[in-house]
């Protein structure tokens, strides 16, 4: 009897612990977005928000962080300028926003609302190239670009939008450069919107098509012509990648219908 009582007690305790774990996990999932925004105050009174995004993950319901909520956050923060994860040189030379899909949406939203946009990303194709990865060198170069761009926005509120994988790296680098991390009250409210019906920004299909063409055709052609690159690298960037182009252009159907999710 005593052993049975002990077993029941252990089972009850374990059940309570398991239930608490489930409840904690559910609470964290429901409030996942609040871990994607940081704020740093720079000595010259620059107020800097950093927002980590999920790229294509925003279009999956399970991520619990939609593109609409990302746009709500931009709107609610009310930045004087937005810095996005895209490369300035390709924008200047080819007129393409070469960042991930959420960066293209952010760029178009800012264009519609007359918010200046700066491009801060850095990566290049060499024989050490690994797709969809980041390194300390890349984060260092992104930070350098941020610091250079900030010089044009004294006493302004800046929003830096980057992939979630860059969020802490860039926050730490800003703090290391003399910034002070500040508390953001009611973070969840940043992602709330007033409008019930979501509509994509006006230019999104044009911007996305230009980006898709660049990666499907323009960039592969440039890679094939580069004699410094190994054949393995060139093989990754197939010339005239129509399958990739067609696949990526499916997002435009989503945009036209103002739908948020692919699943």
Walk me through the topology.
Layout: H1 2-30, E1 37-41, E2 47-53, H2 67-77, E3 81-84, H3 88-94, H4 101-112, E4 117-119, H5 136-150, E5 157-163, H6 164-176, E6 180-181, H7 204-224, H8 231-236, H9 242-248, H10 250-257
Parallel strand pairs: 2-5, 3-4, 3-5
Antiparallel strand pairs: 1-2, 1-6
Helix pairs in contact: 2-4, 5-6, 7-9, 7-10
Characterize this entry briefly.
This protein is of the alpha/beta class.
Main sheet attributes: strand count, strand direction, barrel closure: 6 strands, mixed
Strand order of the largest sheet: 4-3-5-2-1-6
The share of residues in helices is 40-55%
CATH level-two architecture of the domain at 35-202: Alpha-Beta Complex
Q: What quaternary form is this? A: single chain
Count of helical regions: 10
Give the N-to-C terminal Cα separation.
Answer: 53 Å
The share of residues in extended strands comes to 5-15%
The helix-and-strand class reads alpha/beta
Number of strands: 6
The name of the CATH topology of the domain at 35-202 is Protein-Tyrosine Phosphatase, Chain A
CATH class of the domain at 35-202: Alpha Beta
Q: Regions with pLDDT < 50 over 5+ consecutive residues?
A: 23-30
Order of helices and strands: HEEHEHHEHEHEHHHH
Mean pLDDT, as a whole number? Answer: 90
| Overall 3D shape | globular
> What is the CA-based Rg, rounded?
22 Å
């Amino acid at each position: 009897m005593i052993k049975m009582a002990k077993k029941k007690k252990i089972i009850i305790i374990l059940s309570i612990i398991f239930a608490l774990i489930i409840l904690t996990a559910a609470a964290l999932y429901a409030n996942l977005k609040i871990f994607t925004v940081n704020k740093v105050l720079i000595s010259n009174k620059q107020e800097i928000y950093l927002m980590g995004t999920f790229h294509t993950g925003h279009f999956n319901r399970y991520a619990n962080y939609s593109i609409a909520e990302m746009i709500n956050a931009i709107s609610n923060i009310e930045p004087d300028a937005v810095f996005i994860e895209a490369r300035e040189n390709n924008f200047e030379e080819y007129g393409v926003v070469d960042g991930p899909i959420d960066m293209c949406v952010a760029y178009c939203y800012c264009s519609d609302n007359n918010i200046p946009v700066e491009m801060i990303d850095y990566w290049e194709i060499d024989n050490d190239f690994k797709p969809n990865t980041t390194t300390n060198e890349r984060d260092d170069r992104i930070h350098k670009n941020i610091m250079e761009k900030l010089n044009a926005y004294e006493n302004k509120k800046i929003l830096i939008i980057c992939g979630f994988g860059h969020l802490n790296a860039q926050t730490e680098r800003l703090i290391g450069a003399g910034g002070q991390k500040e508390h953001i009250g009611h973070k969840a409210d940043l992602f709330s919107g007033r409008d019930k019906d979501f509509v994509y920004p006006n230019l999104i299909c044009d911007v996305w098509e230009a980006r898709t063409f660049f990666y499907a055709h323009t960039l592969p052609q440039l890679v094939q012509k580069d004699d410094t690159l190994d054949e393995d690298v060139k093989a990754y960037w197939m010339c005239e990648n129509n399958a990739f182009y067609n696949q990526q252009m499916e997002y435009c159907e989503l945009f036209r219908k103002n739908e948020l999710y692919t699943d």
